[in-house]
Design a protein that fits this description.
This is Phosphotyrosine protein phosphatase. This protein is of the alpha/beta class and about 130 residues long. The chain has one domain (about 15-115): Response regulator (Rossmann fold). About 30% of the residues lie in helices and about 15% in strands. It contains four helices and four strands. The protein has a four-stranded parallel beta sheet with strand order 2-1-3-4, with helices on both faces. Helix 1 crosses helix 4.
Length: about 130
Amino acid sequence: MTGAAGPPTPRPLRVLFVCAQNRLRSPTAESIFRDVDGWEVASAGTNRDAEVPVSRDLLEWADVAVCMEKRHRDILRQRFRGALPDNRILTLGIPDNFEFMDAELIRQFRRLVPWRLEAIRPRPAGGGEGAG
């Protein structure tokens, strides 16, 4: 049976936003990027008492982890070695001095995140190679 369906729809880019407590910055990012077409987002914190602590499962789910600060990236690399390639752990350099959904924080996310993720694409399901 031949179908009229076009090419398969690519899997969404899975983005994990990471801060320390998962209370202010990363949940803000998750909230504002939740409805972006082609993205699936989640957030977590590096502290063990975070609202949603980062786990190996979350990192293996993600195509890319977007960390607020270098220290978050360093914790992911140390605690979850190999769960996500180093080139898939990005750092924004956003300090912990914003409230949840702060207007300036949202402006920074909207300016930085799409630019940083521009070159990140989900790996093909078949494991094929090539530029995308």
